[in-house]
Amino acid sequence: MPEVFPRKKFIAIILGTALAVAAIIAGLTAIAITAKNKSKGREDSYVTSAVLNPKTDTFLEIDASLSAVDVNGATAKLKLTFALSVQVSNFSLPDSLVQPNPKQSLYYETKYPMNVTVGGQTFSFAAGRALLSQSVTVPIDGDFNMYPFDEFLLTFNAAGTYGAKQDPLPILLVLFGSPNGFDVTFDSAVEDATNTQVYGVAKVDRNITVRAFAILIILTMWFLALAAVIFTACLYIFNQTPVPPTVGFHIALLFAMPGVRNTMPQAPAIGALIDQMALVWCMCILAGCVLLQYFKLGYPMVTTGKQ
């Protein structure tokens, strides 16, 4: 008598399950390691606008961390921290910009009135005021309709003045940061050798994890639609009548497609490239399959007069 459950089949199932679990663990581990490396931010990748010596040159250092990207709103958020040079080792220097700060040990205090412009926002610091961290929102250029292969360009200027005559203030701009789900490449430029007009540039695009998941979900949508086509075709080829629960399942699948599409990480509003590649076509295919199944289910009732 043959085995009820052959040993070879059992071993194949065990091996297949083990390989699937190993693949899932390896994928999750790779994602976790990538996210951890990204979180290091400035330690891994940063760009400075110039090479200045904090002990001999007078300048304001602006550390601009790219903390968030709002693709739908076409904006990016920068967190700014400020540091002043020269005064670090000697407050009595004539060109020092900072006065002693016994109360705010974590922040510099400016000796002169100071105005700092980053992007479209200006921050004014009165004499003796601590240079507290600030945040600024800057516009980005790009077309999110090309998701997940969209690319964006962020550009902004940084400048400052100080003193009663509002003399130009040299700027050292430091760019770093990598928001979740994005790869960022920084660059900078200065208008002249005085470093009083500095421009920051960042190229932002989706990282490989976001693109891989988006493509995986697109393929899943197509496989579901093609499975419905095969099932409906088999009904006609083998002259079978669908049961109502099966028709109901395909109706539910039709209306679930937008939800499946929205599981893509950071998915844009409906109408993007992914909808032209998958959502619209899959919903049309599923709608056609449902109509054909309705016809196959209802036609015998019409011709025979039986329910």
Model description:
- It is a single chain.
- It contains 4 helices and 11 strands, in the order αβββββββββββααα.
- The chain has 307 residues and is an alpha+beta fold.
- The chain folds into 3 domains: 1-39; 41-206, no CATH class; 210-304.
- Strands 1, 2, 3, 4, 5, 6, 7, 8, 9, 10 and 11 form an 11-stranded mixed sheet that branches.
- A hairpin with a 4-residue loop joins β2 and β3.
- α2 (208-237) packs antiparallel against α3 (244-261).
Number of helices: 4
The description of the largest β-sheet is: 11 strands, mixed
What is the terminal separation in angstroms? 46 Å
Query: Which value, in Å, is the CA radius of gyration?
Result: 30 Å
Give the total of beta strands: 11
- What percent strand? 25-35%
The parts where pLDDT drops under 50 for at least 5 residues are 87-94
Keywords: Membrane, Transmembrane, Transmembrane helix
Pfam families: DUF4436
Organism: Rhizoclosmatium globosum
Transmembrane segments: 12-33, 213-238, 272-295
